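Subject — a protein and its fold
Fields — amino acid sequence, structure tokens
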Amino acid sequence: MKLKQELITKKKKLPEGWRILPYEKCVAKLKLNKVKKYKVTEYLKEGKYPIIDQSKELINGYTNIENDVMYFETPVIIFGDHTLNVKYVDFPFARGADGTQIITPNINIVVPKYFYYHLLSLNIKVKLYERYFKYVKQSFFIIPPLPEQQKIVSKLDRQMTQIEMMKREAEKEKISSRNILYSELEEIFSNIKGKEILIENLIKDSVSGFACAINRLVKDGGYVHLRPFNIGGFGKLNLETQYQVPLEIVDREKYFLNKGNILFNNTNSTELVGKSVLIEEDYNYAFSNHINKIVVNKDLVIPQFFEYYLLYLWFIGHFARNCKKWIGQSGYTLNKLKEQHIIIPEMSKQEKIVEELNKIKDIQDSIKSNSESQMEALNQLLSSILNEVFGQYKIPEEA
């Protein structure tokens, strides 16, 4: 059965000359020679040619190999099969790995930028684990005459420019708040005085997580199975996207998280490696094989102090610099962390440092929260604008 697209409650009839067309009528057939699909571990931070993938950012990496670059006569649209991210691309690029879908609008029927905006307006529901491109291919699109499409694009471009400017300002505030804490971390840990101790001697116990096949995951009724992307930083678990594993396959005693435990990412992703989170309350959570649970010796170090030190190492790029660049190898193992030395002051000094950093972090969290609220309001405004354009006309079940 074809997917029925319902955008808003109140619907109008299409103006004269407008059409409703299925996806396949709006796109041109894409013929690609065999081109390399870049894995994230192969990305360069700088290079001649951008790599476009299904991530949120327009450009996430670069390559210097011209033979892997694709050239198109007209703009194309990138759709994230796993992420639902949509990008408008009007320059040559190399292709990211699996999940990066390339859409070439049929310019005889649709203006590429118009089709991009229409794709942004699709209301595809996020599921536990799904590939979403099939829903795009089942959708119908409102197609005005080309001159009318261009008028709509011009209006939306002006509105989107304003929204993007406001988003950049909100993001600047968020980055500024993060820099406040990082500057304080650098000041403290680069000048700290005390006893030099091998980190291995500070860790009382540690547990490695376990891998779980996708087909074993459940929607509810299990333990949340934390993945590297769920480790959002000090005191924060990002659970917007989460997976659960059946209760019977989890060793509850082994994987139970107590307040004061620290979760540490040893993934081979340079973006996530070394990120950690201090557990602030008891949880019945499982965690993946790219995560280690760390229990510190509280007689020697305050857990928060140790977590701030890990955050400092992450800030100065220690983990990313030492992360191996190929698939199948752990980026930064717990054993590597244990080999590091740390300067540990006496307990009273640790307490003062933690208290000082907590105050800075509270300021950071407040600024960050305001920034995120602004971002959410702007996203809602974007949805409202797109809905006003594309959601006002009735799309029949069989177009």
The chain has nine helices and 21 strands. Confidence is low (pLDDT under 50) at residues 1-9. The CA atoms of residues 58 and 387 lie 23 Å apart.
